[in-house]
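Students often ask why we bother predicting the structure of a whole assembly rather than each chain alone. The short answer is interfaces. A chain on its own may look different once its partners are present, and contacts between molecules only exist in the joint model. In this exercise we take two input lines together and write out one structure for the complete complex. Read the inputs first and try to guess which parts will touch.
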Amino acid sequence: MIWQLDFLILIFVIICAVAAINIRDLLSAVIILGAFSFFMCLLWTEMGAIDVAFTEASVATAISTLLFVGAIYKTTRRSKD
Amino acid sequence: MLTRVYDNLIVQTVCRVMIPFIQIYALYVIAHGHYSPGGGFQGGVILTAALALIFLAYGQGPAIRRMNRIQAVIFCSIGVAIYVGIGLYCLLAGGNFLDYSQLAPLLHVSVPRARSLGILGVEIGVGLAVMTAMYSIILDIAGQSGNETQSTDTEPETGPQTANRKPDSSQ
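Now the answer. The structure tokens for the assembled complex follow.
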């Protein structure tokens, strides 16, 4: 474990999380959530949890993003709040 | 809508090249699941990603032609039956649930080999169930809602699909 690399990835994770909450466009929020999942995958790989990182990369980055995009195309792209 | 067929040659060609490698990698993940990272769930999700790539690039018609909802439910039940069947056989043979050492007299192998083969069989069942269940969820969320009959689903797809098949035959 290299704590500098951990800290750098953690900063990216927090930036992606705050941006995904605050952005108005829901499609952009979904893409940023995919980036969040990718950085979480990097963080888990760096911390030695390879199996969890594998699950995160396959489920959260691919399938979850696809389901969110499908849900957005069913409803609306603009955030109401 | 996600159900529209895109006439994008680059996307369709890239998907046609990528999908066999994705599926081979998914089978690698499932087959090596008991002594490397990965396993039935991850391999099944990657197989679902290959099917979803067909769904995104070619539209709903070709994806449903490869596996429709009824086949998805049947294969999901088969996967769960493989898992529960191995577990219940070990239970009925005198051990605990999923106690793979009870499979050794059936397979005519040693006990460690029987444990390895038992885990492999369970992971094949889990991968089959996860692939078809997630594919069914994707069809329900991103697919056409309302008309469930196959004739109305595939009827509008035949026009663009035959137009898509023309560059294939000319290659």
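Check your guess against this: The longest helix of chain A spans residues 50-74.
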